[in-house]
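Input record, target 12 of the design panel.
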């Protein structure tokens, strides 16, 4: 396999070595003082098609620029804020080695500008007062990579070897699509983002300081994926397909079109994946009374999913804008596991078990927005409604054979079978009104009202096979049903100030929550009613150190209301030795966040560094304990967390051929239980992801990426560090409309071992997993149409981001709480 990969790489590389490019250089200056113009945008198009740019670049700090082009006739177009647009024709002969355009003079524009901003093609990162923006359209690899691959390069974001996404080293965050929480992403982010082509994304925003307009969620931030919605009385789009050596395959399609006052964008995708058999081992040692338990098993899985999304825009005039969007996502995952168990000590027994489980996830979303603009630029009123439905069901069947239990210490007899079906999910209705007024060039205000009604439920059906009567019977002892309703009313107000080099945003949000929880099992039928009120402040200040350097700091307090996945009392006893369930009595947690950020960007070098501190007194924390020889895993408000962290992002492009980047950080965490003083853990955790890309002539790219991650500090569990790496080769054909990409992961190691150790009162247990890692993926993408201008969409809309999906996953949601020993 290694020889095949090297041969293919050599063939692709050899097809491009004969290309002879010519270097075009020059210097852009101001006509009034002859000073160089830094970071001006330059667009290059062929003379026969001046409207279709084939390349964009930016001038350096002294105004100089250079680029490599094939022989031919071109139009260079220069843009700089406050200057008139300028076009220059350039003809490159086949015999020329270089072309010097000399000094190119731009004159000041007579048009008065309402605001000043720096626009440049090469800098990929823009620092704003409350967020960082990664310009995906200027990433040369976005044409062939997936959105998940794109996230690996975004500042403050890391993606580990199992494709788990982290923001500032934490999984406690939200993922938005065009400013809204997305069902199709939050339910299964890794698979969906793998299926989405990066060429459909315009920007990736990392909102590090969620202001008062965002729900008072206790999260580490927001990753907002902004799709490209450009179309000008025409259409554009792409289709793609992919497959890998595991047996997975998929396809995707993207379309953007606009005719007159109506615009439409749509995205669709299907994926089918296979997970080859992995091996696992589990060992638990109890001290009082003394007992050991060993489990050895295998597990393999397969699944697939389909997602559809569309957005319709209608702009009858310049003052009114209507948006309607709908999305539907559904998927299924099936796994088959086999396990052998041996217990020694006070509970001697052994058995073999085989389990078949299926989880179904998905949801649908319907949003309607109306935006009213006023004569003052930037003043607007937005009215929005959103409906969301999230069904998430699961079922399993287990069978126990070869049971040896002379002292009756095991739960089930030989031949015992059990089934469980859980129907969970809910409906959500949201109404919202937002008002924004810039007042003048220095001051701005914003305010809004919001109401959310949520109705979640979980209902289980449990049966067992009576080995005596040989019939299936209901098991009422395992009944754990839940109805959960929330009414949330909130209001916010914010103020912004910007003058010279200083910017500031302050805000205050008030939220009132009323919730009814109906908990039903065989022993009780209880209704719990709770009400609480929160005032949530936020503040951010920034200082412009220079044209390309910014220093900013911020504070915000957030809360997280427990979601259905941590409230759900449904007992997942697929493994009778390790069971897990939620806690319907959880309270909302509060978290305080402070951060200082320094950012600097230029044509060749982008640098961003963040230092942060956060603490929570009543954090919802997963914990495990032993009862009757069974590990129980659940959640409670027992966490007191303190975390100090750093994150550094560097992107360096020394030449047009080479680009390299590094993204990572180190955290120190101190976490302890408020209920048990002996439950405490502290230490350092780190992560780093880097890559190197070579861009050769004739549109050939070769890259290598890798990552190293140490264990996250948790209350009871320590995980082993691990690393991963991949290689990729991409070739563009048919005038850059067709891209063929080859992606190889862990090429030189077929399996990778992961382990975790959990300690508690009187027990220690360790999990080991040997997972298949080596895979090769081939993808093909074809683009069609022409992209020119942006489809309008409202600038404020509903974003419900206050719900905690699960303790370790944040918005990554989906599934029941983790099995014992794997938190």
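The sequence produced for target 12 reads:
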């Amino acid at each position: 396999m290694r020889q095949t990969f090297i041969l293919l790489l050599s063939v692709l590389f050899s097809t491009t070595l004969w290309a002879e490019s010519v270097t075009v250089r020059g210097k852009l200056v101001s006509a009034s003082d002859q000073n160089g113009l830094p970071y001006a945008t330059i667009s290059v198009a062929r003379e026969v098609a001046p409207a279709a740019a084939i390349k964009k670049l930016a001038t350096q700090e002294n105004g100089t620029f250079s680029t490599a082009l094939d022989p031919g006739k071109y139009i260079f177009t220069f843009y700089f804020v406050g200057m008139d647009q300028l076009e220059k024709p350039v003809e490159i002969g086949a015999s020329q080695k270089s072309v010097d355009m000399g000094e190119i003079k731009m004159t000041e524009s007579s048009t008065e500008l309402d605001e000043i901003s720096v626009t440049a093609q090469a800098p990929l990162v823009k620092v704003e007062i409350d967020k960082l923006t990664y310009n995906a359209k200027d990433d040369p690899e976005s044409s062939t990579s997936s959105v998940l691959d794109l996230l690996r390069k975004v500042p403050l974001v890391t993606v580990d070897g199992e494709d788990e996404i982290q923001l500032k080293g934490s999984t406690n965050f939200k993922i938005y699509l065009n400013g809204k929480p997305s069902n199709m992403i939050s339910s299964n982010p890794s698979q969906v983002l793998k299926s989405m082509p990066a060429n459909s994304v315009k920007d990736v925003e990392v909102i590090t300081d969620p202001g008062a307009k965002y729900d008072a969620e206790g999260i580490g931030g927001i990753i907002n994926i902004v799709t490209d919605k450009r179309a000008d009385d025409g259409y554009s789009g792409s289709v793609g397909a992919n497959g890998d050596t595991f047996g997975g395959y998929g396809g995707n399609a993207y379309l953007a079109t606009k005719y007159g006052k109506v615009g439409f964008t749509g995205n669709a995708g299907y994926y089918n994946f296979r997970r080859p058999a992995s091996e696992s081992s589990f060992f638990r040692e109890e001290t009082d009374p003394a007992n050991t338990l060993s489990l050895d098993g295998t597990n393999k899985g397969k699944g697939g999913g389909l997602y559809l999304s569309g957005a319709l825009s209608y702009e009858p005039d310049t003052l009114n804008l209507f948006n309607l969007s709908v999305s539907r996502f559904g998927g299924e995952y099936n796994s088959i596991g086999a396990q052998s168990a041996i217990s020694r000590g006070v509970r001697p027994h052994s058995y073999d078990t085989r389990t078949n489980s299926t989880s179904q996830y998905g949801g649908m979303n319907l949003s309607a927005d109306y935006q009213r603009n006023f004569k003052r630029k930037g003043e607007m009123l937005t009215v929005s409604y959103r409906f969301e439905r999230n069904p998430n069901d699961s079922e399993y069947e287990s069978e126990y054979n070869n049971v040896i239990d002379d002292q009756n210490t095991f739960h089930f007899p030989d031949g015992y079978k059990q089934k469980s079906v859980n129907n969970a999910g809910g409906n959500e209705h949201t109404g919202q009104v937002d008002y924004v007024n810039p007042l003048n060039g220095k001051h701005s205000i914003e305010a809004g009202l919001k109401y959310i009604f949520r109705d979640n439920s979980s209902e289980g059906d449990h049966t067992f096979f009576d080995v005596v009567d040989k019939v299936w019977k209901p098991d009422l002892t395992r009944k754990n049903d839940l109805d959960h309703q929330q009414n949330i009313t909130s209001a916010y107000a914010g103020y912004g100030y910007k003058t010279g080099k200083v910017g500031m945003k302050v805000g205050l949000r008030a939220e009132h929550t009323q919730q009814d929880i109906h908990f039903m099992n065989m022993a009780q039928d209880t209704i719990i009613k709770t009400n609480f009120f929160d005032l949530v402040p936020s503040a951010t200040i920034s200082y412009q150190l220079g044209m390309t350097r910014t220093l900013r700091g911020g504070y915000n307090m957030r809360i997280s209301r427990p979601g259905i996945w941590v409230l759900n009392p449904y007992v997942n006893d697929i493994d009778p030795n390790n069971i897990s369930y939620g806690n319907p009595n959880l309270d909302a947690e509060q978290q305080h966040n402070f951060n200082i950020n320094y950012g600097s960007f230029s044509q060749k070098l982008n640098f961003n560094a963040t230092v942060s501190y956060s603490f929570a007194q009543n954090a919802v924390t997963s914990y495990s304990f032993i009862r009757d020889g069974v590990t129980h895993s659940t959640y409670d408000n027992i966490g007191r967390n303190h975390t100090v962290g750093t994150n550094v992002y560097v992107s360096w492009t020394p030449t047009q051929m080479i680009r390299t980047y590094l993204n990572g950080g180190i955290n120190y965490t101190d976490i302890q239980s408020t209920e048990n003083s002996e439950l405490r853990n502290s230490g350092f955790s780190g992560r780093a992801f880097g890559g190197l890309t070579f861009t050769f002539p004739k549109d050939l790219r070769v890259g290598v990426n890798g990552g190293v991650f140490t264990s996250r500090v948790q209350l009871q569990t320590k995980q082993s560090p691990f690393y991963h790496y991949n290689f990729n080769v991409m070739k563009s054909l048919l005038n850059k409309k067709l891209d063929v990409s080859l992606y190889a992961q862990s090429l030189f190691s077929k399996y990778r071992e992961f382990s975790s150790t959990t300690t508690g009162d009187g027990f220690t247990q360790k999990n080991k997993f040997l997972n298949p890692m080596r895979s090769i993926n081939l993808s093909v993408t074809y683009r069609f149409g022409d992209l020119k201008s942006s489809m309008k969409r409202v600038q404020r809309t509903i974003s419900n981001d206050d719900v905690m999906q699960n303790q370790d996953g944040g918005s990554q949601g989906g599934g029941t709480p983790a099995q014992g020993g794997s938190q």
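The radius of gyration is 28 Å.
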